[in-house]
Structure formats: structure tokens, C-alpha cells
Predict the 3D structure of the following.
Amino acid sequence: MQELQKAKEPFVFYTRMHLSELTGLRASTLNQLLQLVKEVNGSCIYHHTHRFLQQHQHLSPEPPNDFAYWVTEVLGEDELGEKLASIDVIQFNTIRSLREKIAETIESYLAENPMAKVRFSKENEEFHFMKSISFVMPTKYVAHDLNDFVEILGKITIDSIYYHIFESRLRLEKNANDFSNWFLTSLGDDRLAAEISKLDPYTFTLEGLRNRVIRIVKIRIDS
């Protein structure tokens, strides 16, 4: 491999483990769902919009979020379910802004469909709020240039990829994923940073995402 520019700061790869925990909060109507969406911890919103992605990493495109699924399958509110499922998560840099969009979507629907307020779920089909608890740990892998980065990216687990692409951006409220931030701030490569940032990671499986990022970086190395 050719010798490349060394980064100002090396990229330390992290990985994560997560636990899903019941909160004891549940909703049987849209009004109750709306109120709890506004009040619950951000880790609940994250869990219910990213659970499928975390647990079924090989599915693409990703299944709908839990709110959309429950509204459609349990309450039979297909129109609202479609609206919730169509929320483009990639557009939101914070859990707060994503929460506001979900709440706004439900509120608007209730204003236009007042009879939906009195529709209850069946017994034992309530929406149970859960939260995602993450444990983040450094790995033994550290990249000092793009060659290192590509080699390591092929070795790390999909949990590490998930953390650096999804969790660090949304839950930690960063403007971009960790990879793009490193390309820009430590390597000064705004072109590569922009190319990775413009990817919609929600349209890939995690393995597919790994391969796509590797391909883009290799092209950049050879250019």
C-alpha cells in the first residue's frame, strides 16, 4: 500500500453493547401514546425508532419503527401508520428533533381525525415503552491513516460500525458520523468526509454499509 498522510489524531474504534429495558409505561390510545412520546426519556425514542436496525442487521431496507407498526397493526390507523413510517430519520441530528416530529405527526392526525382519540387497543396489545441502554468500550484497533482505516474496517464487528455511524451521530448529537468527522478534522479531507456523510445508512444492511464505506475510501486512496 502507498504511504499516506498521517492523521493529526488517530481514529480509535469503539464498540457497544446494549440492553433493552421495560419502563413500565404503556399506552392503549393515540392520546396516551402522544403524551408519553413527549415525556419519556430520549433512550425510549431511540429504542423504538432503531430497534429493528439493531436487532435485524441483515434486513434492508429497514422495517418500520415501532410507533408506525403499533398504530397500523393494533389500532388500525393505516394513514397515520404510513405517516410515521415515512419519517426520514436521517434528517434528524438529535433525538429531541426526532421526538418533536413524531409528536407533531400524531397531533396533526388527531386534529383531523377526532374519532381516533377514542379507539383503544385490545387487552394485552398496549404499546409498552422500552429504553435502550448502551455500554460503549474502546477496541484494540486504532487507525493512523486511510490504509489503516480500510484494513481495520474490514475486521471490526458490525456493533462497532453501528456505533460510529448511527449512535454517535443521533444519541450524542453530533453533526455527522464519526468517520466523516475524522476524515474532515484529522485528515483535512473534506471531499471524503462529504461523500461518506451523504450516504443514507438506513438503506443498507450493516455489512452492506461496511462494504460501501470501504469501497469509497479505497477509491479515494487510489485517486
Observations:
- The longest helix spans residues 95-112.
